[in-house]
Amino acid sequence: MPKSYTALKALKNNSEASLYIHIPFCNSKCSYCDFFSVTDHSLMSRVLDKTMEQIAGYIDYFGIKSIPTVYIGGGTPTSLPLTLLEKLLTFVGKLPLEGDAECTIEANPETVTSDLLSLLSGSCINRLSLGIQSFSNHTLKTLGRHCDFKTNFLKLELIKTKWQGQLSLDLISSIPGQSVSDSVEDIDTAVSFKPDHISLYALTLEEGTPLARLFSDNPDAIDDNVWIIAADHLEVSGYHRYEVSNFALPGHQSKHNTRYWKLQPYIGAGAGGVSTLHDGEGLFRIANVPDLERYLAGSGLLCGAETEEVTGKSYIFEYLMMGLRMTAGILKSDFHNTFGREIADIIPETLSNWKERGLVSERENEVALTKQGLLLLNQFLLDALSELE
Ligand code: SF4
Description:
The protein is an alpha/beta fold. 41% of the residues lie in helices and 21% in strands. The chain contains 17 helices and 15 strands.
């Protein structure tokens, strides 16, 4: 019997798990994006049906009794016609959601209409995550976005009058040609709409994307300092940084993403969606195939997905990699409960070295990277990895 099958059986009784729904459709492809999504919508209805079938199958098989958070992402979920989106939201609303479940949907400004906002308001969705990225026409053009300053601005005004739920905005910084003052201006405009939450990502040139090809012989076109200064400005503007790229007003941190960073279980449905569950020894990951035809042709619970078990040192490494992204860091007690050993016994040299340099702070029950340390997260992980081996 393959080991993964044994693990799959052990996955039963992940009674509380979050839900991620991947909608792999966009109206156009942005030049920096390497997420799985297609612009041909001909299979949309069939893929959505299969996705809902998969969710029902997972909930039944894994014995999921309560869902604390839902995240509908992609792709562009709001590229679904309203009738299909309503079908999905009605389905999600009937799942065993916790009473105060955080239910987020991603949207792009050009897809926001009064009718969409009415549909969302009458559904289980209580958090809207809007992909603004920038308010500068020049920068939006570089990113290959199909909207401009005016669209972003007008759609935000519409949302402020018609949407009562939480609002999160995505911005990107360190874009080639973007100066510090351009990025700060983007932040000031975003903040003027008083969103509850802002994600400020530093642009990375993902291999195989048109933007990476464009700047393949000019990697210096990306200036990380722009993002660093912009992130400081966002904090000065009243948004608390609680993760490398995420900032929130008090009480408005993303519950769903925090569960990812804490490696809490979630199921991921849809072509290209990924689940991470606990199998008693570690993590069990299920990666749905990022191909619509193959996803539709997949049968059984896994629909042709690839599976991976993450145990032992790999599990510890992943725990550190995700947990230390949060400014609150990781709880020593949780580390001990998870691995049966103290973190200080597992990476003693790395911890003492980084503490001496003022890059790690340690309180009674917490270990965290300091603000300067967070900028060097990858180096910390390399040090931890070599000590783990
Ligand atoms: S809208 Fe989002 S998912 Fe779609 S191509 Fe652009 S960045 Fe990628």
